[in-house]
Amino acid sequence: MKSAVVIFSGGLDSTTALYWARKEFEKVYAITFAYGQRHSIEVEMAKITAKNAGVDEHMIFEVDLSKIGASALTDLKMEVPRTKSVEEVLSRGIPSTYVPFRNGIFISIAAAYAEAKGTTELVGGWNVVDYSGYPDCRSEFLSAMEEALNRGTKIGAEGKKWKIHAPLINLTKGEIIKLGLSLGADYSYSVSCYRGSEVPCMECDSCLLRAKGWAEAGAEDHLIERLKKEGKITE
Ligand SMILES: [Zn+2]
Q1: How far is the CA of 55 from the centre of ligand 1 (A)?
Q2: pLDDT tens digits along 162-211
Q3: Which of 26, 47, 111, 213 is the most exposed place for a label (fewest CB within 10 A)?
Q4: What are the distances in angstroms from CA 169 to CA 58, 71, 141, 201?
Q5: Which residues surround ligand 1, an ion (CB under 5 A)?
Q6: How far, in Å, from the CA of 6 to the mean position of ligand 1?
Q7: Burial class of 205 by CB neighbour count within 10 A (0 to 12, 13 to 18, 19+)
Q8: Closest CA to 118 of 49, 25, 8, 35
């Protein structure tokens, strides 16, 4: 049976990747990392989204990267930078919300989980168009990790080739949302805000890119719809 492990943060991109995997694979295992992120609400929400998507198994894996810190997402003494516009996100260097080698760590743990399940297929929502510029999201990095897994795992040594699927890598945020909608994705519980707020702060990279995406897709954000219904947003 064709199966895959999806690295699933619970945000908008990885929710799309999760629904993509549900279509491509017969069995889907999702793994969500509780890594000491200030927006830990995404872990609780990820449980709801994974259940709604009907995954076969959802593992919450704790790996406390706040012990290492050096990122505005894991170190509460650092401030999440206030971002004014999408243009600013796309034109500046790597911001302080970069978490040291986060995707390298996540891919390694997800690969161990996959190997235990007998699969060499990994899926993630990495994207390099509307993104913050993190180097561990880029395709050359993902290819290098595939090669490392081919060489460093028993399943690889026995001849099975690893594949890291990044179906969103070259899509704009609007295209990502359109793809998700065509796959029936439910984004009501996908939260994105770096400040850890269920209601978007609209002053961080993630909130601004998300709003741009929904505007491009020409639809109302499922999350906003739900928050209005629950009275958490008035207007
Ligand atoms: Zn925000």
Answers
A1: 28
A2: 999 999 999 999 999 999 999 999 999 999 898 888 999 999 989 999 99
A3: 26
A4: 23, 23, 12, 26
A5: 193, 201, 204, 207
A6: 24
A7: buried
A8: 25
Angle, helices 41-53 vs 12-24, to 10°: value is: 20
DSSP tag of 79: P
86 C-alpha to center of ligand 1: Å?
12
Q: What is the pLDDT of residue 197?
A: 87
Q: Calculate what percentage of the chain has a pLDDT beyond 70.
A: 100
Q: Token pair for residue 92?
A: 């500046």
Query: 213: CA distance to ligand 1 center in Å?
Result: 14
Indicate the angle between helix axes 205-217 and 173-182, nearest 10 degrees.
60
Give the distance (Å) from ligand 1 centre to CA of residue 5. 28
Model confidence over 31-66: pLDDT tens digits? 999 998 888 888 999 999 999 999 999 999 999 999
Task: Tell me how far the alpha carbon of residue 37 lies from the centroid of ligand 1, in angstroms.
Answer: 14
Which SS3 state, helix, strand or coil, does residue 65 take?
Answer: helix
Q: How far is the CA of 59 from the centre of ligand 1 (A)?
A: 26
- DSSP secondary structure letter of residue 109: H
Distance 179 CA to ligand 1 centre (A): 23
